[in-house]
Amino acid sequence: MALPTLNLTSGSKGEIRSNSLSKYGRLLLDKASSASLLPNTSVQTLTESGHHLADGILNYRSAKKRMEQAETLLKAIEEDGRIHARFEPTGTCTGRFSSKKPNLQNIGCGKLRTCFIPDDGHRLVVADYSQVELRIAAVIAGDRKMIEAYDQGIDLHRQTASIILGKPMEGVSKDNRQLGKAVNFGLMYGQKKGGLVRSSKAKYGVTITLKEAESFMQKIFDEYQQLRVWHRKSWQLVAETLTQEIRTVLGRRRWLLTGSGNKVGWKRFTDIVNTPVQGGCADALKTAMILLQSKLPDGVCIISTIHDELVVEAPLERAEPVKKLMEDAMIESAVSLYPTVPFEVEAHICEDWSEK
Question: Is residue 301 helix, strand or coil?
Answer without folding.
Answer: strand
